[in-house]
């Protein structure tokens, strides 16, 4: 059994056998969450989809404190190495079998610049993750527009798809519904909405438009899904 907890925005806590992971842990400065970096002392992996501040978030601090391994693209890992953080570089379409299960990086149509006080640092390309734990598959799309590549995931038997619905920087509700149709997950969870004024969206509207394509779970911050 695996447990997935929504931490607000695109941040999730994923627990399973041998895995205590954070995905895109943007906690500090995130008005949507009441969690802070110190709330996850036992984290052993952190998955980062791309370099934007609302995804990279507190990764360096948490990784340093816990000794967790950061999984991200080669370019992101090379930047994180400067912060003396342990990392495992992957690249889009590449997969690696970790002790807890297999992780594949999936494509995302988005940028990955790392926001830095001296300007934007090169962060390679943005991605998403297909994470297998305890025989369950979780797809975190990252920030992305709708892409035809999502259709390739239909063969993977995705249990839970975490999809952005807020628009402006990513898919909006209607494109996220099309993504559900392409990925064919058992369960879909909306994310990346309401945190900023330009990404205001109604998760209930997504749930009603996507009902019939998958089971839709709208998670409140702090709410968990047992898979
Ligand atoms: Ni982004
Ligand atoms: Mn974002």
Task: Explain what the structure shows.
- Strand 1 and strand 2 form a beta hairpin.
- The N and C termini lie close together (6 Å).
- With 227 residues, the protein is α/β, with parallel strands linked by helices.
- The strands form 3 sheets. The protein has a 7-stranded mixed sheet with strand order 6-5-4-3-2-1-16, with helices on one face.
- Helix content is 17%, strand content 32%.
- It has a single domain, classed as 4-Layer Sandwich (Metallo-beta-lactamase, Chain A), CATH 3.60.15.10.
- Helix 4 crosses helix 5 (203-210).
- Bound molecules: nickel (II) ion and manganese (II) ion (MN).
- Manganese (II) ion binds at residues 52, 54-55, 143, 169, 192.
User: Which molecules other than protein and nucleic acid are bound?
Assistant: nickel (II) ion, manganese (II) ion
The level of helicity is 10-25%
CATH architecture: 4-Layer Sandwich
Give the overall shape, derived from the CA principal axes: globular
Topology at a glance:
Blueprint: E1 3-8, E2 11-16, E3 19-23, E4 45-47, H1 53-56, H2 59-66, E5 69-73, H3 74-81, E6 87-90, E7 95-98, E8 101-107, E9 114-116, E10 119-121, E11 127-133, E12 136-140, E13 160-164, H4 173-183, E14 187-191, H5 203-210, E15 215-216, E16 224-226
Parallel strand pairs: 3-4, 4-5, 5-6, 12-13, 13-14, 14-15
Antiparallel strand pairs: 1-2, 1-16, 2-3, 7-8, 8-11, 9-10, 11-12
Bound molecules: nickel (II) ion and manganese (II) ion.
